[in-house]
Amino acid sequence: MGEPLGLLQVTVIRGKKLVIRDFKSSDPYVIVKLGNESAKTKVINNCLNPVWDEELSFTLKDPAAVLSLEVFDKDRFKADDKMGHATLSLQPLISVARLRHIVRVSSGETTLRKVLPDSDNCVSRESTISCIDGEVVQSVWLKLCAVESGEIELKIKLIDPPGTK
């Protein structure tokens, strides 16, 4: 866990079927964490299917890293309500990044791996990890845990550290 493995760009695209935490709706935002780093999206008022389309950046240092996210309902006069959480192992993404260097995929779009929903992840439907013009990208829907419903769509891009080929 010393040298950075790359820059991880996490785009929080949207939420779907989030739970109601206020009278008729919620004011959701997402906190994404990787290791000791965390970042937060803006609050979307009165929406159960919000679109954030916000890019958050992290330094990836651990090859066994797990990305975690929590969704909250912003409240004005009391503590924010929890709207669920999810985790995603980054190990498949890191493996594809290494494979890309071995097979020398650099242009066009090539799907190199699929991640299926199972008990070890919060993936809600099949997710692909592709090499798109030399960049490793994963598009994924995560099912929120500890709530009745809700999913979050992410696009995750792993960018090599400077000076790496």
Write up this protein:
With 165 residues, this protein is mainly beta. The chain has 1 helix and 10 strands; from the N terminus they run ββββββαββββ. Strands 4-1-10-9-8-7 form a 6-stranded antiparallel sheet, with helices on one face. The radius of gyration is 16 Å and the shape is elongated. The chain starts with 5 loop residues before the first strand and ends in a 6-residue tail after the last strand. The mean pLDDT is 91.
Task: Present the secondary structure layout.
Blueprint (H helix, E strand, L loop, with lengths): L5 E11 L11 E7 L2 E4 L10 E10 L5 E8 L7 E9 L1 H13 L5 E7 L11 E6 L2 E9 L7 E9 L6
Antiparallel strand pairs: 1-4, 1-10, 2-3, 2-5, 5-6, 7-8, 8-9, 9-10
Radius of gyration: 16 Å
Strand order of the largest sheet: 4-1-10-9-8-7
Instruction: Identify the overall geometry.
Output: elongated
Largest sheet: 6 strands, antiparallel
Poorly predicted parts = none
**Helix amount:** under 10%
Mean of pLDDT: 91
- The tally of helices reads 1
Strand coverage percent = over 45%
Total number of beta strands: 10
Task: Supply the helix-strand structural class.
Answer: mainly beta
Task: Compute the separation of the termini in Å.
Answer: 20 Å
Question: What is the ordering of alpha helices and beta strands?
Answer: EEEEEEHEEEE
Give the oligomer, counting copies of the same chain as homo and different chains as hetero: single chain
Main location: membrane
GO molecular function: GTPase activator activity; lipid binding; metal ion binding
Protein name: C2 domain-containing protein
Domain C2: 1-103
